Amino acid sequence: MITCLLAALAFAPLDAATPYRFNHDETKVGTCTLPDELQCVDGARVTDPAVWPAKRRGECVIFTHQHFP
After folding, report:
1. Which residue blocks in 1-69 are alpha helix, DSSP H?
2. Are the C-beta atoms of 29 and 23 separated by less than 8 Å?
3. How far, in Å, CA of 17 to CA of 56, rounded?
4. Rounded to whole angstroms, how far apart are CA atoms 59 and 54?
5. Residues linked to residue 39 through DSSP beta bridges, in sequence order
6. Could you read off the pLDDT of 28-39 as tens digits, one per residue?
7. What is the pTM of this model?
8. What's the chain's Rg over C-alpha atoms?
9. Is there a contact between 55 and 62 (Cβ–Cβ < 8 Å)?
């Protein structure tokens, strides 16, 4: 029951007078150029599975947090 209450509060609007604004028209979507997922910031390429968690994954997480808050 507490889980349901927390979920309801998490999805409740902060201001009842301001409804959620979703974009349902794809013609209004802006452009976004994503970086090459296998190219590290320093220019090195991800060449084996060990490089991804050690280096590139963290760079992708930082990029996502900077550009998609």
Report:
1. 2-11, 51, 57-67
2. yes
3. 43
4. 10
5. 45
6. 888 878 889 999
7. 0.52
8. 19
9. no
Which residue reads 């090459």 in tokens?
Answer: 36
Phi, psi (deg, nearest 5) at residue 10: -65, -35
Report yes or no: 38 and 56 within 8 Å, Cβ to Cβ: yes
- For residues 18 and 20, what is the distance between their CA atoms, to the nearest angstrom? 7
Give the span between the Cα atoms of 51 and 42, in whole angstroms: 13
Q: What are phi and psi of 44, to 5 degrees?
A: -70, 150
pLDDT per residue as tens digits for the range 9-33: 555 555 555 566 787 888 888 887 8
Residue type, 23: N
Query: What tokens were used for 29?
Result: 């979507």
